[in-house]
Structure formats: C-alpha cells, structure tokens
Design brief:
8-stranded mixed β-sheet; 16 strands; 391 residues; L,D-transpeptidase catalytic domain-like; 5-stranded mixed β-sheet
C-alpha cells in the first residue's frame, strides 16, 4: 500500500528547540527600536502590556506566542506561554475589523481571499503602508500544490488600518500590541511564530450552521473544513500545537485528532438550546417623524440597494429547510451620529430565527450613514427596509 509523502508544513517544533537565552537575545528588540514606529509603540505600550500580563498572572514578556484567527467570527486570539511543555494561556482577543472574500482557502492572486491554513510570521514590517504589519508565509507548502501554479498570490499580512483586500486587519492600537508581543517572542528565540487561520469557531453554533450551509453542496470545501476543525479540536483539548503535515496532494493531516463528540444527543440539545443574540440597542427619546433630509447611506441609494442585494444572497444558507426565498422586513434607527441601531424584525419567516439574528448582526456592521436633518440639526430617524433573502 502506497504511503503518502508527509511533509511538515508547520515549523513550531523547530522553534521549540530554539530555547530562549542564547547569544544576542536583545538584538532583535534593539533592531526594532531603530525604526520610528516600533520604537514609539514600545515606549507607548510596553508598560501597559506588562501590567496586563501581571493582571492575568502571566510572565512578561511571553517567550512563546500563538496566533489564531477566525474569519467568519472576525476575531483574532493571542495565546502565550513560557516553556515548550506548558499549555498555552489566552492573553487577549482582538476584533478583526474588515474581511475580504468568503470562507475557504486562498487559491489565486487577485481573488481577495484571506488564506486559511497553518502559517507562521515570516516578516516584521516597521514601515508598512498600513502602519505596522506582520507577514505570514503564504503560500505555504500546501498552497503551492493546491493554488494557481503561476499566480498563487502573496504579500499576506496582519496589519493596522481597517482596510483589506485579502489580509487580516486590526486597529493601529492593536497592531502596536501584537507587533511588540511578536518582537519580544522572536527576541527570545521563537523564530517561527504560528498563525492558524480558521474559517469559523467550530464551537459556536451559529458559525457552524453558516459553514454547514456553505458546504452542503460543496464536498471539497467540506473536506477542507473538516481538516481545519481537526486542528481546532486538538488545540482546544490540549492547549498545545497540533502536528500539521501534508500529503503529496496538498491535503492537511493532523496528528492525534481527538474523537468527535456525538451529535444530536439529548444532552447536547439541551446545551444548544437557542438563545437570542444580543444586538446594539440605544435609548432614544426623540425620533423625528418629519425631516428636511432623510438619512443617506454612504455612496447613495443605488449603492445601498446593491448592498442589500448582496446581503440577501449571502444569507441564503440561513433560510429554513425547504424555503428558497424569503422577504424579511427590518426596522432600524439611524441615530444622530449616523450609527444604525435598534434593529427589529417586523416581518420574518417561520423558523427563521437564526436568519433574522444573522441579518441584524450584519446590518449592524454597516458603515455610518449621513444622519437625517431638521434644519441644520442632526436627528434620529426610523427606517424600514425589506431584504430579499435567496437567489
């Protein structure tokens, strides 16, 4: 029987052998201090980070860090530890403030996809166009097999400034912190800082349901996501890095995957009993009935209609089984600062509670509107809009 060629694609094991305390341990931090932005970040944030570590009973600075990001959930976690044999402990979770593309791996240049898979930081960029940035080693060994052979894409970063065409953006204040944490870890000998990028949090029901909708008719994406889930499960159980390999076809293989929990048991149904999600609500006492100028969506009404059309298509996977199209009427307030708040479903679809929650979640993330006016004064104004969900 032919055994697939196994290639270690994740070099955490190598970095683990590089014990801190070797010669020139301070050289990388000193090198970073030679650049204005990292130097200013260190002066501004290092003391604050140290106090945050102390508050969580963590030793400063972390000798090993691990970064994992969740595309659909728009979150990035930073885990830390002092010894190779220690379990990782969660230090902080950042919000990823923009996302390009959809779930699934990156496969070619210009597809605007954020990669999915197992990577490490391969560049510290102190002069980034997006303030500060940390490069990841896309394309990795798997990507080189499975992606476009001539133009797989490149230059994927975790960076500041909340814009993206395929990278992972966080705020400037957050990249300050992450850059310092990574620089200190590298300074102490962690040459390969792992960055795992997952499609979803596999322990969040609404995220799992969304992925199930995408993979229902896409077996390749289903198999891909299953391997990503294997790595997620391993870390959740052991708080240690899984050993990630690939075969000669580019498929990820995860060593010692914990057994899956049985689904649809009575206990699980009780645990997963649906709870309505919290939404953005403001106490508003003065909502205008008559205005001189209605709220305006950034870019105008035509852009708003295109946004709603795309939103309805994106939410098709949330439709209850057997329903191919639905018309959901939603009410919200555009407040005096232009924020869309206080969303409420006026007309939904039977069995579509998850769809309605997801619709509100996404509409709450709209850019700020130009608020309504009475004379020259900004006022809050109620809006009602119908969203067509489905193809």
């Amino acid at each position: 029987m032919r055994i697939p060629l196994l290639i270690l694609t994740f070099f955490y094991c190598l970095s683990a052998m590089a014990q801190p305390g070797g010669p020139n341990v301070s050289s990388f931090i000193n090198y970073q201090k030679g650049f204005p932005r990292p130097n200013e970040a260190l002066q501004r944030k290092e003391d604050t980070l140290q106090k945050q570590f102390e508050a969580k009973k963590l030793n400063w600075p972390a000798k090993y860090i691990y970064i994992r990001s969740f595309k659909y959930d728009s979150q990035m976690e930073v885990w830390v530890k002092d010894k190779v044999t220690d379990p990782f402990k969660l230090f902080k979770t950042y919000k990823v403030c923009a996302l390009a593309g959809t779930l699934g791996p990156k496969r070619m240049e210009g597809d605007y996809q954020v990669p999915e898979g197992f990577y490490y930081i391969n560049e510290f960029n102190p002069n980034s166009s997006y303030y500060l940035s940390l490069g990841i080693n896309y394309p990795n060994a798997s990507d080189k097999i499975l992606s476009d052979s001539l133009k797989p894409g490149s230059a994927i970063y975790i960076h500041g400034s909340c814009v993206t065409v395929g990278c992972i953006p966080i705020t400037d204040q957050q990249i300050d912190e992450l850059y310092i944490l990574a620089a200190h870890a590298k300074d102490q000998g962690q040459d390969f800082i792992p960055v795992h990028i997952f499609p979803i949090r596999f322990n969040v029901d609404r995220s799992v349901k969304f992925l199930e909708g995408l993979t229902r008719n896409d077996q390749d994406l289903k198999k891909w996501s299953d391997r990503m889930e294997d790595a997620f499960d391993y870390f959740e159980k052991y708080k240690q890095m899984p050993v990630v390999m690939i075969d000669d076809k580019g498929k990820y293989l995860i060593n010692d995957v914990p057994p899956k929990k049985p689904k649809n048991t009575a206990e699980e149904k009780l645990v997963n009993k649906r709870v309505a999600r919290p939404h953005v609500t403001r106490t508003l006492t003065n909502i205008a009935d008559v205005v001189n100028q209605w709220p305006q969506y950034p870019g105008g009404g035509e852009v708003f209609m295109k946004y709603l059309d795309q939103l309805g298509k994106d939410l098709a996977s949330f439709l209850p089984e057997g329903i191919k199209k639905a018309y959901v009427q939603v009410e919200f307030i555009v407040d005096i600062d232009g924020s869309p708040v206080n969303f409420k479903i006026l007309k939904g679809v039977k069995g579509g509670e998850d769809l309605e929650d997801e619709l509100i979640d996404r509409m709450e993330k709209m850019d700020r509107w130009i608020p309504a006016k009475v004379g020259e004064k900004n006022v809050a104004k109620k809006m009602v809009q119908t969203v067509t969900v489905g193809e």
